[in-house]
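Escalated from tier 1: nicotinamide-adenine-dinucleotide holo job.
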Amino acid sequence: MENYHNLVSKQQKFFHSGKTKDFNYRINALQRLRDSIKKYENKLLDALKADLHKPELEAYMTEIGVVLEEIRFTLKHLHSWVKPQRVKTPLTLLGSSSYIYSEPYGVALIIAPWNYPFQLMIAPLIGAIAAGNCAVLKPSELTPRTSEVLEQMITKLFPEEYIAVVQGGVETSQALLNEKFDTIFFTGSVPVGKIVMKAAAEHLTPITLELGGKSPCIVHEDANINLAAKRIAWGKFLNAGQTCVAPDYVYLHHNIKDVFIKELKIAIRKLYGELPIDNPNYTHIVSQKHFDRLSAFLDEGEIVIGGASDRSQLVIEPTVLTKISWQDTIMQDEIFGPILPILEYNDLSQVIEGIHNHPKPLALYLFTEDASVKKRILKNVSFGGGCINDTIYHIVSPYLPFGGVGSSGIGSYHGKGSFDAFSHKKSILKQTTRFDIPLRYPNFKNGIKMIKYFMG
Ligand code: NAD
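Tier 2 regenerated the structure:
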């Protein structure tokens, strides 16, 4: 097994030189990263096309544009984020003042998956740089061309003692996890998340886990059906369903079943045409293994939309299944592909119970016009984050921290959240030397009386 001890030591040494903590160093690194992404835009788009058949608009929007936007936001606000934050001081600590200092953890390990191979590596890196860390990046081995361009770009931009890229698969990832990092940021599946957390526990390393799960999409009987169908079709089949926050399945009110399916069919046809398999603007499946796993689901329930696939091109048509229950195989794990099963319900309590019986989702989407329905779901169901009357868009706002809960993840990022994910919050009390309140000392007369007056 490879050994990354030297690389990590080099980064530790560089971190302790203090350079990466310098505000201008961080700003300069982010500006150069931004300029370089723009320079590599075509290469990246070609690589994403080769790895995943990602169409240009989708690739730009979800991989390149989104990180440029994140850099812009960070550059605009970093000066206020890095300032020690003054907070209140209780009366019992009269004479002193209180501050929270954000300090970089040190050397970060960032491990990324294949579904948005560029975005999910660069977005956390922006947080790591902004907070003043060094970083080792481990991109996915399943998208080799994008990972290669990413390495070229980063190697040209930064010395390896600051930011390094390590290529490889499971063994490389595990060799890296054997090292002692100051923080680990992992995006990927739940089973690997557990491996990462165990490895981090060995060194008591703080972690952020951005995982997955089955994200429900509830369509209530009073929903704007036309818009719901359009927004669900877009959110589900974007990147061919290989999106961590894609609607995994639809919980559909029984009374609107036929009309919703009719609208969904129209929406899918409008997005991808009559023959999505041949549509150059439709993403393909990442590997044969995933293609075969997904194809097996096509035998479950009843196909009401789509169903065609082509193994030689690794493409599966946007497909919708009905007559599905929680017992079907497709309902056991995250689907992560362009197949959308529909579960029916008559009463919201069935929905709430169904979700409660399974791990907490990363996202939840609710389509309704009824304020009491919104309130009931938000109050009774735990999930990472989500939208009312839309899908996916909640992850776009830099003002909304994005992350899971329970088995869908630990911690969050985006916007200031990314800076915070890579910062330790150091609490400092600055005490006065002008006087010394004697209350706390054991020889203070009537001390207990006074203490009781101030505390409790
Ligand atoms: P994965 O967990 O298989 O792999 C992610 C990374 O971990 C890769 O770099 C891989 O090399 C490494 N890895 C794989 N097996 C490992 C092992 N045994 N030990 C150590 N490292 C290992 O995930 P994936 O298939 O690349 O991505 C899909 C999953 O990621 C889905 O579950 C999806 O929901 C999740 N995801 C989550 C988010 C989020 O932001 N929450 C975003 C995208 C994807």
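The domain at 5-211+409-428 is CATH 3.40.605.10 (Aldehyde Dehydrogenase; Chain A, domain 1).
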